[in-house]
From TrEMBL:
Protein name: Guanine nucleotide-binding protein subunit gamma
Domain G protein gamma per the UniProt entry, residue ranges: 1-69
Its membrane topology: Lipid-anchor
Keywords of the record: Cell membrane, Lipoprotein, Membrane, Transducer
Main location: membrane
SMART domains: G_gamma, GGL
Source organism: Equus przewalskii (Przewalski's horse)
Family indicated by similarity: Belongs to the G protein gamma family.
Gene3D superfamilies named in the record: Transducin (heterotrimeric G protein), gamma chain
Subunit note: G proteins are composed of 3 units; alpha, beta and gamma.
Function as written in the Swiss-Prot or TrEMBL entry: Guanine nucleotide-binding proteins (G proteins) are involved as a modulator or transducer in various transmembrane signaling systems. The beta and gamma chains are required for the GTPase activity, for replacement of GDP by GTP, and for G protein-effector interaction.
Location within or outside the cell: Cell membrane
Region (Disordered) location: 47-69
Length: 69
């Protein structure tokens, strides 16, 4: 799609995107970093990548073995 647009149209789209982004509220990383750390630590118990998936609820567990005679 970008190949079909002229340079002027691309620049206009970029300016419009920047106008949208400038309206976003910004917070200092010192505050948001603490909040993210607290959230991750609080949710660690529910993370299947950290604690694993129970064998009975694993949708990718092999149902049976393959036997070739």
């Amino acid at each position: 799609m970008a190949q079909d647009l002229s340079e002027k149209e691309l620049l206009k789209m970029e300016v419009e995107q920047l106008k949208k982004e400038v309206k976003n509220t910004r917070l200092p990383i010192s505050k948001t970093g603490k909040e993210i750390k607290e959230y991750v630590e609080a949710e660690a118990g529910n993370d299947p990548l950290l604690k694993g998936v129970p064998e009975d609820k694993n949708p990718f567990k092999e149902k049976g073995s393959c036997v070739i005679s």
